[in-house]
Description:
Elements: E1 4-9, E2 16-21, H1 25-37, E3 42-47, H2 48-53, H3 55-59, E4 67-70, H4 79-91, E5 99-104, H5 106-118, E6 124-129, H6 132-138, E7 143-148, E8 151-158, E9 163-167, H7 176-193, H8 195-203, H9 214-231, H10 249-259, H11 266-283, H12 289-301, H13 314-322, E10 333-339, E11 342-347, H14 351-360
Parallel strand pairs: 2-9, 3-4, 3-5, 5-6, 6-9
Antiparallel strand pairs: 1-2, 7-8, 10-11
The protein binds glycine.
Amino acid sequence: MSAVETLQVQLAERSYPITFGSGLGTQVAEAVSAARSQGRRLVVVTDDNVRAAAGALFAGPLAGLPTYTVPAGEGSKTLGVFAGACEFLARERIDRGGVLVAVGGGVVGDLGGFLAAAYLRGIDFWQIPTTLLAMVDSAVGGKTGVNLEAGKNLVGAFHQPRSVTCDMALLRTLPAREFAAGMAEVIKYGLLADAALFTDLERAPMTSPDDPRLAGIVRRCCAIKATVVQADERETASSGGRALLNLGHTFAHAIEAVAGYGQYLHGEAVGVGLVAAARLSELLGLVPAADVARVRRVVEAHTLPVRLRAPLATDALVEAMKRDKKVKHGRLRFVVLERLGTAVTRDEVDPALAVQIWKEMGAS
Ligand code: GLY
């Protein structure tokens, strides 16, 4: 990949560029100064870990901008934190011409995006993802929201960012556990749309931000996501469509809700969820056991869990699945593998199969 590349997410008047590169401070500074010269007020939302780790960004291009800093972690993705941040925006007199800059991982991006969607019924926002997971998934596509005790992302809105800036330099300080969590989403893309990516990761797992494949793989995942979102922005397709991006996530969201937010990083729960989804695909007669073993090996090779770390109650997990947003008319809907590299949605899956899989995965 050359120094700076862009990819356009084509959504008519909601189209926007994703910029990829390493050391994109100048681009951010130019965007800030262009917005200010138009008289726009900017506000930053971030978390305390990112503020410390990305000091150069806050001391440089974002210096002097009012900044709302939340505690790092899933615990900040709540209506309470959202309400506090809304009051901050009002105190800072952010008006309809304002721009919210979300600098952080999935939690900050989802929370910041939801603020931008709801405050004054919608203001512009820019995503500057600082984790691998946010770069390849959550910062792109306009899903925003917060969690309820009842489940993940149950309150939110579709609100597309105006730009996404993927600066690979920000990943250098990412803790190994966070990097691995991002790889769960990368593996997901391989499984649902890019068999060659999956076999590449199988041949040589990507376990470090120094891997020379990183920038190209981030771009490849964003390209897949852009294509899917362009075709089904609001996840309304009756089958397939954007729901396919949730491969492994019905299982993952249940784990996160039942274990308690923060016990598993989202990507760690997705690691278990991908293995569970592969096993479900096998039980539905779609893929052979050997493919499930391949999925398990690739997930494990990226230092991600492939089963529950400690038993969780099967009943609670199944109940949590029933609150998944993909449930319609009370019927569970799963994303499963037709083969490695191709996913499909399946309705009317017998809940007994989910129970069997949870038990195999270590549920009590
Ligand atoms: N993370 C799934 C989606 O954006 O649709």
